[in-house]
Specification:
mainly alpha; 89 residues
Length: 89
């Protein structure tokens, strides 16, 4: 069981967000096609859930980085009026 978790952690370490999304889309297409046996459907569903959680974590991390870079740090962004500084001739 420990080796299985280590293998999963190693696979996630090299998995990109884009690759995870592509795999998730492929899983959804196979499940929606309906021509997969029950056992394989369950395995695909489980893999899909793991990929969805991975992608959600990646998006949360990216959002956190953006908030830090933009100076929000836990606050909601404040929307204001947008003004374009262009002089008309």
């Amino acid at each position: 069981m420990v080796k299985g978790k280590q293998a999963e952690a190693a696979a996630e370490a090299v998995l990109t967000f884009e690759a995870a999304m592509e795999r998730l889309e492929a899983i959804v297409q196979r499940l929606e096609a309906g021509d997969v046996l029950l056992e394989e459907s369950l395995n695909l569903f489980e893999e899909g859930i793991k990929l969805a959680k991975f992608c959600s974590g990646q998006l949360d991390a990216a959002e956190g980085k953006l908030q830090i870079l933009l100076g929000f740090e836990g606050e909601e962004p404040k929307l204001g009026e947008f003004k374009l500084n262009v002089e008309e001739n």
